[in-house]
Amino acid sequence: MWQDVFMHTRLLLLILGAWWVAGPTGHAQDHLETSSDWFLEGINTPEITEQAAPDRPIIVAIVDDGVRTSHRDLQEFIWVNPSEIAGNRRDDDGNGFVDDLHGWDVSDNDPGVDPPRNRLSEYSHGTHLAGIIMQMARAMYGPRAPEFVRIMPVKALSDGADRPYIKDGYKGIEYAIGAGADIVLCAWGVGHIASEEERTLEKARDRGILVVASAGSFAEGREQFPAAHEAVIAVAALDPDGTKIGRSNFGSFVDLSAPGINITSTGATSDTAYDSRDGSSQAAAIVAGAGAIVRSHLPTYPPERVAACLKQSATNIEGANPRYRAKLGAGRLDLARAVECPLFAENAPLRIELVNPQGFLRIRPREKAATIWSIRVEGHVHGIRFTPRISEGRAGESDVTIFKEESGLTSIAERTRLSDFPESLFVPGSAAHVAVGTEGAGSDLDWLIEYRADPVDLSRLYCRDTVHLSEEGTIEDGSGIHEYTFENDCKWLITAPEGKVIRFNFTEMDTQPRVDQIYFFNGSGTHEDIMAIFSGTEIPPVLTTWSNQALVWFVTDGDVQGQGWKADYSFIAP
Questions:
Q1: What's the distance, CA 336 to chain centroid?
Q2: pLDDT tens for residues 234-249?
Q3: Is the entire prediction scored with pTM above 0.85?
């Protein structure tokens, strides 16, 4: 019973806290104010009005609940199927979809990609995302923006759905693949993925399509799919200070972060409607728009290279997010640097310093000189994992040496030929140095190796789930001279010999009053009688159990921390 009460209380606080940080999801606007486009400045959007238009616009498919194609700000940007004749009730291009002039409704199996007229306020998500991409294109290219970027609406929610849950998202991706999309935006997700859905994502990648998805808006570290699939860019949401917003998901599966609060964009309720929304959906739309812009400047780049440009150019945000070290991807999107994409510059330096928790090593031929990358990730991480993403050209006798750095000492962690580099290589610690010699390699050598820091679960940083103790001693939060961590959920089960009871004598106490608490249960679990709850900065009184077992449970929230606590325990006669 107590466990249910405590966990339900924590869940309620989490939900209320997420609402307070993120705010309501929609705020009506009369028009699109220039002051509301803070995210454009936040991602360092350049203005490139002199850029020559590509042979054709980059097509961004928005697989969602529909797009209001008649909106005054979106009309020019809506994709038109060049092989389809409007309204003749024929499948002119032979793709199996009759009159799919602007996209397709894969749920209702018809060409109606607009939200249903009787449910405009419910089916407004996709229209809002479309307006974000539109704003980015206009900021970059001005009045010529539709020459560079077009939006393909793919409706994946039936008009008669019980609730606005994207049920047919993967069917929508399949349509986008066949219709010629360059970028696919999936601002939805669930906690699992089927094998055929994985094949759809891999098919998109193999066809040269970049898929971008939201990490989720549940304030959890739980993976969401399609975002967590390796063929997809997973996006978390930030505020203007570069801090994760309360409702955004996080985790090692995240690839990149972008603004996701107070994002004003087009609304679905009329052709002149606007509203403001929060969440990782909006952040994902910003990254999808950035992917389209990078693709328009580098049209020959496959999705792996476009993704690498986006991630390698990101701004480090680890210092602003100490609770989420290596859990917000490579950092915050920087569009200007992504368009320049120095990663693929021909005259790269021989020594490269990298500090972001994710990034890439590009290996090109160098005569009589090795390229050296020094990677230093901030904060606690288990280690750094290296994975080849592109392996083109003849490696010859090229060699790779990876050094690990621990306690100020450097030693060789791995030495291999480039051609024998494993599918995945893990080096412990937060710092690693990579030296690559390419003597004898072909002039066409062009490898791309991704590195990712493996984050530490802070809630388990100073303890395990349940520690079993049967000898007298001391228990503490484990943080030593440091503050204890956020969202602790640690337990100690102490068992004295039969006929004895347990006495606790606190020697240190500094926790957030009435919030971060130490619970004492008389027995082996949280279903037993509770004896005491201690919190605050005053040393608690001596506590003696009623039996030979006690469960101690330390629970903290995500806010202000303290220096922790320490208690001696002994076994005495009752």
A1: 21
A2: 999 999 999 999 999 9
A3: no
Q: Using an 8 Å Cβ cutoff, are 571 and 502 in contact?
A: yes
Cβ-based neighbour number of residue 426 at 10 Å = 15
Phi first, then psi: what are they for 471, rounded to 5°? -125, 150
Average pLDDT over residues 394-408: 90
Q: Is 540 left (phi over 0), alpha (psi -120 to 50) or beta?
A: beta
Confidence tier at 201 by pLDDT (50, 70, 90): very high
Q: What tokens does 17 get? A: 């806290």
Residue pLDDT, tens place only, 241-290: 999 999 999 999 999 999 999 999 999 999 999 999 999 999 999 999 99
Q: What would the pLDDT profile of 213-242 be if each residue is shown by its tens digit?
A: 999 998 888 899 999 999 999 999 999 999
* pLDDT, mean of residues 105-115: 96
Burial of 90 (0-12, 13-18, 19+ CB in 10 A): exposed
User: Is 557 in contact with 458 (CB distance < 8 Å)?
Assistant: no
Res 145 pLDDT > 90: yes
| CA distances in angstroms from 387 to 3, 71, 360, 391, 448, listed in the order given | 42, 44, 9, 11, 9
Would the pLDDT of 461 be above 80? Answer: no
Which domains are delineated in the chain? Answer: 23-337 (3.40.50.200), 346-456 (2.60.120.290), 459-572 (2.60.120.290)
In single-letter form, the type of residue at position 16 comes to: L
Using alpha carbons, select from 451, 457, 311 the residue that is nearest to residue 385: 451
Q: Name the nearest CA neighbour of 393 among 440, 342, 346, 451.
A: 440
232-238 β-sheet, strand order: 104-105, 149-155, 58-64, 183-186, 210-214, 232-238, 256-259
> pLDDT value at position 36?
53
CA end-to-end span of the chain: 27
- Asked if 306 and 233 count as a contact pair (C-beta separation under 8 A), the reply is no
Residue 322 is given by DSSP the state G
Which SS3 state, helix, strand or coil, does residue 544 take? Answer: strand
Cα separation, 252 vs 221, in Å, equals: 8
In angstroms, the CA 321 to CA 27 distance is: 27
